[in-house]
Design goal:
single chain; alpha/beta; 7 helices; binds hypoxanthine
Amino acid sequence: MKQNTPTPHNAAAYGEIAPTVIMAGDPLRVKFIAENYLENPKLYNEVRGMLGYTGFYKGKRVSVQGHGMGIPSIGIYSYELFNFYDVERIIRVGTCGALDKDTKLGSVILAQAACSDSNYGGTLGIDRHFSPCADFQLLRKAAETAERMGIDYRAGNVMSSDAFYASATETDWARLGVLGVEMEAYGLYINAAMAGKKALTILSVSDNVVTGEELSPEQRQTGLRNMIELALEL
Ligand code: HPA
């Protein structure tokens, strides 16, 4: 929808953003991906420091953009990408806390579906129990690619929490087989469903909510690299 662009949050002109966008919460991680993995990256957005770049990966045009923290924030950026910039697929790369003591730090979780304590769906007029899920083709390709790359991964449900400091209730979700806790997949998947577009969330396990273990900054970087390469290969 050309007439809605640029937006109050995104300075890109219509056409400057590729049909496939990789999103990360931290704009500096976006800058890292653009500078280390893309050929000829062009910065299209700096509004609120939420950097966005378009470049090429193995000859294919791709964009990378920040989405901030939490469902309201990814809600805004992904809505505009899907509905105003005609983006077809968004792959979020992020971190999560594992909810099972045996899930290894640095391993990858593919968010097949997302539960939440958020009322984002209700706010958008979904008044029943919609189950937001990943696009199956993207999920299948991510699983196949992870196997080919030798990346240790699991696929399953995640929990998108509205509160980072909510440890009292998080472990309840583990009893339902929920693998990890993060803060955005639910909002992204709802926006994709409402726009008729595709989305996937790929998470690197940065901490374990049960054991309290955390990755060191160096280990975090390696985990991130696996996940970034996996996302770009899609
Ligand atoms: N909670 C919510 N979001 C997160 C966490 C967590 O423990 N770890 C990484 N992102």
